[in-house]
């Protein structure tokens, strides 16, 4: 924690490009001194704390496509980078086809902050505590990025490198997140443990998604992703594999939760101890998986 | 640092303001327009004392740049009351006793107004959830929640 | 109409009048100090602070900072040699030779913008020689610890505070009552415990702000968010070596105080800077991060309790040791040590008591007054020990309290007798409301339910001669203007002041104005808005002032009507005679008087009433025994009970129901009193479940809302009840005494006792976070 913070925001230049290419070029030209921003809820706070010191902030919110939110049953859901979390929560298509994502968004901060916070921003900020990252990973999301070399897509699976570190390069502007159509019959749960009842950052966050899958021994495929217990959103491959190979029951779920607790590597920090986090991974993974299983069974 | 000229409608009046890049909407309201009803409690998007409506939706004005508000419609606590009378949420807050020191009150009123606009008959849980981003240290929230319910009944 | 009828005038005292300032606040019109407009002459201040908990200042170079364009002044402690302090003058305005906590002010900058001032801070070079720090009060009190205030014995100190020369103990308060040593043998049950209560902060939603200006004549004006305009004037003036008459303090609305805006913390910094830029107002606004640790915090406590009772459950002995982590400067905190000392029995009659309450310097943030003034910290441990002692001898915890609690005439730990008190009624009301003795099943298989109860008492902690004063005047239209020096922090004192003035005068509440903002140039003196003292003390002053005005009016009218003033009264703004049934409105007469008959002149004239109140009966306490005839003015007593559930899977506590009952003597405005009980309960609950300043090597690890969690709208219990008990205070206006602090005092132990009831675990101290509870249950084998 910085000893002294700025009273509000330090000095910087605000630049609003007219096109994506213009944005990308600007970012390349002012490499290391410029940063794109959307809602600003992460960037402004870190600038105030002196952690980020960009000379230029590039407002990419109103570029083409950034505000689109559309769903197509064949191709899936596309969330423009500037679409705020409240919009995502309220979308009837998200509620019907990706309710887990809506639940994850709903757990973030406050209604006011969700009017500015974006899922793409959450992703690019790459905090291991990011509430929506688990759902995005569970749905096998893909990030559309405009870079110095043109447009490209990146699967989120390899996107996160460490706290605040991603595969984004200088000149990159993330413009949308795409979620393929959800697996048929999928059910999800996001359990977030904060210090208050609501609005806190997660001490531990558990994202669980399950769906019928003919290709596994158990007949189901589960995704289990943990927040705040590793440098990046932590996909518990051991638990996922176990649940693919073992008939699903409260016992096997308990075992999967134990695997999750053993696999993750939480740390002691000002919010919680490693020991408590590990215990909560065990408890909340079981709770989340059971919730999903109960919904799948119906 | 560059300055930007913006046109922003605040409480129904269109203003032309010149703002530096790093000025937040909160500071623009309080300093450039002398609308001091919106309060500065943390400048970090946590306490909600700076909540205003931006294009009809509540935001923490300390987390919005003034320059982003070009063309936007802003409503602050000063804009809640009509010409002749107070907004029902203001009346309720007085009657039920949801005000103590008054510092969180403007932000609470804006968040409550926005809640009632999108959900005219909220449950107690919905009220609490909608106000979770508005911290109050005096009231314990009891009479604030009651005020919103009373306003919903009007 | 006799004076005693004044006391029984029913209306508007006792009515739920709407807050006098509510409309201003809901429309955004209410002006707080940061809202004041000063124009282009305003300069902005930022403070350079020590990064070390304990160090000598070897060298400060301000030349580069002073040269930065836009910087108008840079100051250090070199220019301000005066000590400052309320009960003990132990700090400088800016550090001079050494720094004593991380955040200690070393230099200040005034510039044309906050950003330039902030940049200038980085250009100030300070060379330190790091010294060995003290982070624990027991260590600090020991002979091994380095001395943080080597000049302690030279400091100017109030005569009821006892610093120990050559140590880090800035106050040592003792109780030696009866014979504790031989009493233990007679005890059937004895409980011995240690409690650690962490530092917390007040977290007013409005951070500290002060604007100071010095004009060409040298007169200082200080605007600020302040609980104590008059104390700030006298303390700062005294430190700067000027007469208080050369300083003026103006105090607009306060956005939450809870004690942190009492005394002087950061205000003197703005004044010091202002002296270097005559004619310019200089504003210092603390960031939220600075608010958490650079103004006042609530000090930590290490408390040892040993309490014993006989087989019938009667308390026989208590031996208590308090080590207060007072922080770098204890100019205010020394009195917390004293107050906890003379309250150390809790609200119980105990014949044998030995207490040692020590205020210890540490290299931690500055401990100051916070709601409860030592009572929440002390009761946190004591009320748990009471529960444990009751359990040890097989008695119900509420029954144990019924037997031992203070009643009218009980002998107090300082030797005097308890005045009439409703504490027994408070116990009954809370026990009944929480359903004591009845166990409800948990709401789910993974929850455990429990109930807990705790009592409290507190007296206003203040010097024996803390005074209040008031004036009243009327306008031509008969409206009443009341001048006060106390501040409305949100507790509602302006409203009850208006109610009392209206009742005492005989005018409608709606026609009363309180003369705000408080301005030491025009407002009458008030010691401070602390200690839950205003309704009682300022209320008495207002009644006296109103009586004075009333006398003038009735004398004039009686003379005009050739009647006796005793046959006259003022009702609803009209002077009436019971004898002749004549009537005359107050309008105009209160300014212009009444004409004599036959054009022979006029009588009367502008009516101005004045009144003051100062307790005259508080005696000293013996320095060795803590015994005295009358230690304090009075006590407010009360009780709280909670019902809660513990989630066995996560350790999280959910408060289902909270009930409070306090004896306020007379509720001038019952809804406002209940609002204090609600707000205090939630603040107490927040301190029980979430709050602590996480100090590591003197550095606060969590100085922001992100990691210093307070209760939000979703954390408040759905069922919160407040009961008013009224056993009149003999010298209170209409029998009233205070309530502002008390509702935060018993909450931690009530919750702790309920957690024990639910899962059988106790903790060394709050906060009872989910993690702490879960890991304790895991270690105890209650969960796997």
Plain-language structure description:
- The complex is a heterotrimer of chains A (298), B (154) and C (784).
- Chain A is of the alpha+beta class and 298 residues long.
- Chain A is 34% helix and 23% strand.
- Chain A folds into three domains: 46 residues, Uridine Diphospho-n-acetylenolpyruvylglucosamine Reductase, domain 2 (2-Layer Sandwich), CATH 3.30.43; 111 residues, Uridine Diphospho-n-acetylenolpyruvylglucosamine Reductase, domain 3; 111 residues, Enolase-like, domain 1 (2-Layer Sandwich), CATH 3.30.390.50.
- Chain A has a five-stranded antiparallel beta sheet with strand order 4-5-10-6-7.
- In chain A, helix 9 packs antiparallel against helix 10.
- Chain A is globular, with a radius of gyration of 19 Å.
- The termini of chain A are far apart.
- Chain B is globular.
- With 154 residues, chain B is of the alpha+beta class.
- Chain B folds into two domains: 76 residues, Ubiquitin-like (UB roll); 66 residues, DNA polymerase, domain 1 (Orthogonal Bundle), CATH 1.10.150.120.
- The longest helix of chain B has 14 residues.
- The model of chain B has no long low-confidence stretch (mean pLDDT 97).
- A five-stranded mixed beta sheet of chain B has the order 2-1-5-3-4, with helices on both faces.
- Chain B is built from five helices and five strands, in the order ββαβββαααα.
- Helices cover 32% and strands 18% of the residues of chain B.
- In chain B, helix 2 packs across helix 5.
- Chain C is an alpha+beta fold and 784 residues long.
- Chain C has three domains: 175 residues, Aldehyde oxidase/xanthine dehydrogenase, molybdopterin binding domain (Aldehyde Oxidoreductase, domain 4); 177 residues, Aldehyde oxidase/xanthine dehydrogenase, a/b hammerhead (Aldehyde Oxidoreductase, domain 3), CATH 3.90.1170; 323 residues, Aldehyde Oxidoreductase, domain 4 (2-Layer Sandwich), CATH 3.30.365.
- In chain C, the strands form nine sheets. Chain C has an eight-stranded mixed beta sheet with strand order 3-7-1-14-11-12-13-22. In chain C, strands 9-17-16-15-10 form a five-stranded mixed beta sheet.
- Chain C is globular.
- The N terminus of chain C is likely disordered.
- At the B-C interface, helix 2, helix 3, helix 4 and helix 5 of B face helix 2 and helix 17 of C.
């Amino acid at each position: 924690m910085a000893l002294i913070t700025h009273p509000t925001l330090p000095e910087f230049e605000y630049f609003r490009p007219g096109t994506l290419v213009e944005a990308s070029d600007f970012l390349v030209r002012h490499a290391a001194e410029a940063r794109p921003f959307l809602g600003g809820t992460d960037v402004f706070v870190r600038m105030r704390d002196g952690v980020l010191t960009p000379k230029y902030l590039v407002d990419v919110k109103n570029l083409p496509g950034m505000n689109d939110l559309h769903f197509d049953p064949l191709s899936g859901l596309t969330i423009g980078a500037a679409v705020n979390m409240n919009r995502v929560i309220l979308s009837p298509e998200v509620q019907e086809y990706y309710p887990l994502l809506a639940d994850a968004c709903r757990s973030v901060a406050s209604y006011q902050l969700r009017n500015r916070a974006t899922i793409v921003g959450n992703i690019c900020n790459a905090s291991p505590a990011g509430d929506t990252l688990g759902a995005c990973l569970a749905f096998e999301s893909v990030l559309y990025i405009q870079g110095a070399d043109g447009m490209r897509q990146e699967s989120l699976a390899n996107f996160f490198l460490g706290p605040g570190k991603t595969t984004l390069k200088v000149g990159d502007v993330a413009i949308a997140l795409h979620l393929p159509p959800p697996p048929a019959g999928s059910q999800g749960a996001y359990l977030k443990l904060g210090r208050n009842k609501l609005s806190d950052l997660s001490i531990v966050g558990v994202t669980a998604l399950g769906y019928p899958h003919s290709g596994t021994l158990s007949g189901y495929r589960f995704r289990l992703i943990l927040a705040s217990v590793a440098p990046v959103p932590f996909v518990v491959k051991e638990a996922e594999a176990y649940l693919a190979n073992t008939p699903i029951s409260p016992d096997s779920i308990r075992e999967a939760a134990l695997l999750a607790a053993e696999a993750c590597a939480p740390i002691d920090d000002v919010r919680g101890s490693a020991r408590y986090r590990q215990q909560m991974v065990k408890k909340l993974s079981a709770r989340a998986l059971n919730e999903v299983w109960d919904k799948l069974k119906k | 640092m560059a300055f930007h000229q913006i046109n922003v409608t605040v409480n129904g009046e269109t203003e032309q303001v010149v703002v530096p890049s790093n000025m937040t909407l909160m500071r623009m309201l309080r300093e450039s327009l002398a609308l001091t009803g919106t309060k500065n409690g943390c400048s970090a998007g946590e306490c909600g004392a700076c909540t205003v409506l931006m294009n009809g939706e509540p935001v923490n004005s300390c987390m919005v740049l003034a320059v982003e508000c070009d063309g936007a419609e802003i409503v602050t606590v000063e804009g809640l009351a009509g010409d002749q009378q107070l907004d029902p949420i203001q009346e309720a807050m007085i009657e039920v006793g949801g005000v103590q020191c008054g510092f969180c009150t403007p932000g609470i009123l804006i968040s409550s107004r926005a809640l009632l606009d999108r959900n005219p008959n909220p449950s107690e849980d919905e009220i609490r959830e909608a106000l979770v981003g508005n911290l109050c240290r005096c009231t314990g929230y009891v009479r604030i929640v009651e005020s919103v319910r009373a306003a919903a009944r009007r | 109409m006799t004076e005693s009828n004044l006391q029984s005038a029913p209306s508007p005292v006792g009515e739920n009048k709407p807050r006098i300032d509510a409309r201003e606040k809901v429309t955004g019109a209410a002006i707080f100090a940061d809202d004041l407009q000063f124009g282009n002459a305003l300069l902005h201040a930022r403070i350079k602070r020590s990064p070390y908990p304990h160090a000598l200042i070897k060298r400060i170079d301000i030349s580069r900072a002073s040269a930065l364009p836009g910087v108008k002044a840079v100051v250090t402690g070199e220019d301000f040699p005066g000590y400052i302090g309320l009960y003990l003058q132990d700090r400088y305005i800016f550090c001079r030779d050494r720094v004593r906590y991380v955040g200690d002010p070393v230099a200040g900058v005034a510039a044309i913008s906050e950003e330039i001032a902030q940049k200038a801070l980085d250009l100030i070079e300070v060379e330190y020689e790091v010294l060995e720090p003290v982070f624990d009060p027991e260590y600090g009190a020991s002979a091994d610890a380095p001395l943080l205030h080597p000049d302690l014995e030279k400091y100017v100190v109030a005569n009821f505070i006892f610093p120990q020369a050559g140590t880090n103990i800035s106050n040592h308060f003792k109780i030696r009552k009866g014979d504790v040593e031989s009493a233990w043998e007679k005890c059937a049950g004895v409980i011995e415990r240690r409690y650690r209560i962490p530092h917390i902060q007040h977290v007013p939603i409005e951070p500290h702000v002060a604007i100071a200006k010095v004009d060409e004549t040298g007169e200082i004006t200080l605007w600020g968010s302040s609980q104590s305009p008059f104390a700030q004037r006298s303390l700062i003036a005294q430190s700067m070596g000027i007469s208080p008459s050369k300083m003026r303090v103006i105090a607009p609305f306060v956005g939450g105080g809870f004690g942190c805006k009492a005394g002087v913390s950061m205000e003197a910094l703005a004044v010091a800077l202002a002296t270097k830029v005559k004619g310019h107002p200089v504003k210092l606004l603390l960031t939220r991060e600075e608010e958490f640790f650079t103004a006042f915090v609530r000090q930590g406590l290490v408390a040892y309790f040993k309490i014993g009772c006989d087989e019938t459950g009667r308390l026989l002995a208590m031996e208590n040791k308090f080590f207060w982590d007072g922080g770098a400067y204890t100019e205010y905190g020394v009195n917390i040590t004293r107050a906890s000392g003379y309250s150390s029995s809790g609200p119980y009659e105990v014949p044998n008591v030995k207490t040692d309450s020590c205020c210890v310097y540490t290299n931690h943030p500055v401990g100051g007054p916070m709601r409860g003034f030592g009572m929440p910290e002390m009761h946190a441990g004591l009320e748990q020990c009471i529960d444990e002692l009751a359990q040890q001898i097989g008695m119900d915890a509420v029954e144990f309290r019924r037997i031992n609690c203070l009643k009218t005439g009980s002998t107090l730990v300082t030797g005097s007798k308890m005045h009439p008190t409703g504490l027994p009624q408070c116990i009954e009301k809370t026990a009944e409301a929480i359903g004591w003795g009845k166990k409800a099943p948990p709401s789910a298989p993974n929850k455990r339910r429990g109930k807990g109860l705790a009592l409290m008492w507190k007296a206003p902690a203040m010097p024996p001669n803390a005074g209040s004063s008031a004036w009243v005047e009327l306008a031509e239209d008969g409206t009443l203007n009341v001048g006060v020096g106390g501040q409305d922090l949100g507790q509602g004192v302006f409203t009850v002041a208006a109610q009392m003035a209206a009742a005492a005068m005989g005018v409608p509440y709606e026609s009363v104005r309180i003369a705000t903002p408080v301005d030491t140039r025009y407002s009458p003196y008030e010691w401070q808005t602390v200690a839950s003292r205003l309704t009682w003390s300022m209320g008495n002053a207002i009644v006296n002032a109103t009586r004075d005005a009333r006398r003038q009016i009735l004398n004039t009218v009686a003379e005009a009507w050739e009647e006796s003033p005793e046959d006259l009264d003022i009702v609803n703004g009209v002077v009436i005679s019971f004898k002749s049934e004549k009537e005359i409105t107050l309008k105009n007469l209160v300014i212009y008087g009444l004409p004599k008959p036959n054009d022979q002149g006029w009588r009367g004239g502008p009516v101005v009433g004045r009144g003051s109140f100062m307790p005259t009966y508080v005696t000293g306490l013996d320095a060795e025994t803590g015994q005295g005839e009358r230690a304090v003015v009075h006590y407010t007593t009360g009780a709280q009970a909670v019902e809660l559930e513990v989630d066995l899977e996560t350790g999280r506590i959910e408060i289902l129901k909270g009930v409070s009952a306090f004896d306020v003597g007379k509720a001038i405005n019952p809804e406002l009193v209940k609002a204090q009980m609600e707000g205090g309960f939630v603040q107490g609950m927040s301190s029980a479940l979430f709050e602590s300043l996480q100090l590591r090597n003197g550095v606060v690890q969590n100085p922001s809302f992100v990691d210093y969690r307070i209760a939000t709208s979703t954390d408040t219990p759905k069922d919160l009840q407040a009961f008013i008990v009224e056993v009149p205070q003999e010298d209170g206006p209409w029998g009233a005494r205070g309530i502002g602090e008390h509702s935060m005092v018993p909450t931690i132990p009530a919750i702790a006792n309920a957690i024990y009831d639910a899962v059988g675990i106790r903790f060394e101290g709050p906060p009872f976070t989910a993690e702490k509870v879960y890991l304790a249950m895991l270690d105890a084998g209650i969960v796997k």
